[in-house]
Write a structure and sequence with these properties.
14 helices; three-stranded antiparallel sheet
């Protein structure tokens, strides 16, 4: 025997011409201890709907051997080893038992993929003419004008240019009691002075992005961003996506697990070369500490119920693909944004800007690229190639679309395995190339 671990049982459906994606997904997941879901839409129609429970090394319980499934409905083919039910209907086709098994209808934390949900809410308001990216934030949120932020624009918030990467200047970050209080987070941001001149540089706002943009959504719409998303986006499209998981859906939740320890706030700052007393260094320490607390909270009912708009979204791959499909075309008669708004959202907004302070020395070909609320392709997160947009999340989650081809993709995983500094997630690469090839965009 070779001792090699067998490829995971991949369950679900693919349409004719997309079988290579199933095989590529299996290759990408072969060494993954957690479960994963992959959904692809092309021209608004589901062409790939796959999932795997993983190797079982996380205790989720890998799926037992089951008989090959019959062909799926509507011309789809059952994946190798599929269960009796067609994956498109949301049934548990994997034949897995156990409360933490990852199934077709399981949902998980999306981490920063959540930022795209928030961006969609802002762009809906932009599309309706009640919000403009060039508006000063203070026009809608007067308290935000404090501490030198009167000229900060909505676009600055969406493109990570606001200079507010943390909630506090305390390097320990916002304490848990305040971090779990959305109103306290918003008050802290309104009082903060920016770490750099807004609009003059950019740096990822890991947690604060959600409250900055989310509060503008609340001020304009009269609803929290989670409630607005539920009513205006998830409801009309029938999505299993939430910013604040309802208690009735808790039985579907599968926790995430880390496969390597996260760096401490001090280690993260040391890698930047910033002096310990530098205000930017302090802010980065605070941001790292806050993100660690927030991520830990997602393992609790309180944390999942809370609205953490930048990282606490919860959902499945099917819903991510359906959401992105509705951004670039109609899905069952629903199109969320106009083509002009999508084009504006994917226009580069940071390519001309440096990172703040001495961080500009770290700029290179793989530095982050942002449009208005969405990530744009770069070597470390290639998405679907030039013209595509989307957002990755810590550990390896991914949602994205390519308007010209009509592709929309959602990928959700339970193993926090992606190391961004090492390049693209190895789990993505096989199926991303197969998707591009099947859609006629090239690929291996």
């Amino acid at each position: 025997m070779s001792g090699r671990r067998p490829a995971p049982l991949v369950t679900g459906t693919v349409r004719p011409g997309w079988e290579g994606v199933r095989d590529a997904f299996a290759r990408g997941q072969a060494e993954d201890p957690g479960g994963a879901q992959l959904a692809v839409r092309h021209g608004g129609r589901t062409v790939v709907d796959l999932w795997t429970p993983g190797t079982g090394r996380f205790g989720y319980g890998a799926a037992p051997d089951v008989a090959d499934g019959a062909d799926g409905a509507d011309g789809a083919y059952g994946a190798d080893g599929a269960g009796g039910a067609d994956g498109a209907d949301g049934a548990d086709g994997a034949g897995v038992t156990g409360g933490e098994a990852f199934r077709a209808d399981s949902v998980g934390v999306l981490m920063s993929v959540s930022k795209a949900l928030v961006a969609v809410c802002a762009h809906l308001l932009i599309d309706r003419g009640v919000l403009d990216p060039d508006d000063p934030v203070a026009r809608h949120w007067p308290e935000f004008a404090a501490a030198g932020k009167a000229e900060t624009t909505v676009a600055d918030l969406l493109a990570h240019r606001a200079g507010l990467p943390a909630y506090t200047d305390d390097p320990a970050g916002l304490p848990e009691a305040l971090l779990l209080d959305p109103a306290a987070r918003v008050r802290a941001l309104a009082a903060m002075s920016p770490v750099w001149d807004p609009g003059k540089a950019f740096l990822y706002h890991a947690l604060t992005y959600g409250d900055l943009v989310g509060e503008v959504v609340r001020r304009v719409s009269g609803e929290s961003v989670g409630r607005f998303f539920a009513r205006e986006v998830a409801g009309p499209l029938g999505l299993d996506l939430w910013i604040g998981l309802p208690e009735r859906e808790e039985h579907r939740f599968v926790p995430q697990r880390a496969v390597r320890p996260d760096p401490t706030p001090g280690q993260a700052v040391e890698r930047t070369g910033l002096a310990p007393g530098d205000r930017l260094a302090t802010s980065l320490r605070a941001s790292s500490a806050e993100l660690g607390r927030a991520t830990a909270s997602f393992g609790t009912r309180r944390g999942r119920a809370a609205e953490f708009p930048a990282a606490g979204g919860i959902g499945d791959a099917r819903s991510l693909a359906r959401l992105y499909a509705a951004l670039v075309g109609p899905v069952d008669g629903v199109r969320l944004l106009s083509a002009a708004t999508v084009d504006r959202a994917r226009t580069p907004c940071t390519d001309h800007l440096p990172q703040p302070g001495v961080l500009h020395r770290l700029d290179g070909p793989d530095r982050s690229r942002f449009g208005l609320g969405f990530e744009l392709p770069r070597p470390g997160t290639p998405l679907l190639g030039e013209g595509s947009f989307g957002h990755a999340g810590a550990g390896g989650r991914l949602g994205m679309a390519h308007p010209e081809s009509g592709l929309a993709v959602g990928y959700v995983c339970t193993a926090m395995a992606w190391e961004p500094s090492a390049g693209p997630d190895p789990r993505w690469m096989p199926w991303t190339e197969a998707v591009r090839k099947a859609a006629g965009l090239g690929g291996g």
